[in-house]
Amino acid sequence: MKNLNIFFTILIILIINSRFFALNILTSIKPLELIVREISPEANIINLFNSSEDFKNATFDENIYSNMDLIILLNNEISFKNDSNKIVLSEGVLYYPYQKNPFLWSDPLYTVVIAYKIEKKMESLDPKNAIKYRDNLLRFTQKLVELSDYVSKIAKDSKIKIIDMNNLLIHFYNRYNINYYLYSDDITITRQDVLISSIKYNNSTFNNLKNKKISIDIFLSGYNTIIEFYKNIIDEIFDDE
To answer: Could you tell me the strand order of the sheet in which 24-29 lies?
Structure first.
């Protein structure tokens, strides 16, 4: 009985310590939250915007989140007085891709870059857990690279033509050389074209077309992992190939 009590005491201490030393992280959008969870599942994460509507309409009180160890933003969408532990993903190597299209995470290999930048910052803030972060990053990267290789193989012989109504998956199309067009008033839509739009997209012309339509939850509001998001895109786009 004494040994059992000691065991439970140690277990409780370990649980308390693991919670105490977990990083407090603020992410601006859910795709970034899901990437962080791959690197540090035990991190205490607060995410601000779970959908495009949240992103456009939400208000923000910096004082509520003043105790964050790390703040992860897409493009300085929120201003902070103290930004020493802030990552802005549109800076550096991802600057030009972001300027072309802000939905960087639509490309699995850009997600690798995002995860790497986040992991390195977490290492500097929490060096005691650096090995754990690296191992998790490695596993996550392997999943993304394997998935990317798979898409490359099935997209190689694809005859699909996509018209993207909301400019959502530009990086995905470019990565895998998928034939696509951005919607405009002068574009000709044929019956064979696949139409991609954001969820809740409402357009009378679009609604009346009989084409195959795919709704993309680009802010991942309905997903628990970013891998699920990619698999859903792959299944939706290539299911008839």
So the answer is: 44-49, 24-29, 70-73, 86-88
First to last CA, the chain: 63
Q: Are strands 86-88 and 70-73 parallel, antiparallel or unpaired?
A: parallel
Rounded Cα distance, 132 and 22, in Å = 12
pLDDT at 139 over 90: yes
The Cα 204–Cα 209 span in angstroms is 9
Contact 43, 70 (CB under 8 A): no
Domains of the chain: 2-151 (3.40.50.1980), 158-238 (3.40.50)
Q: What is the pTM of this model?
A: 0.87
- Which of 109, 143, 147 minimizes the C-alpha distance to 39? 143
| Alpha-carbon Rg for the chain in angstroms | 21
Distance of CA 34 to the CA centre of its chain: 6
Residue 135 has pLDDT above 60, yes or no: yes
pLDDT 10s digits, 147-202: 999 999 999 999 999 999 999 999 999 999 999 999 987 888 999 999 999 988 88
CA–CA gap between residue 93 and residue 86 (Å, rounded): 16
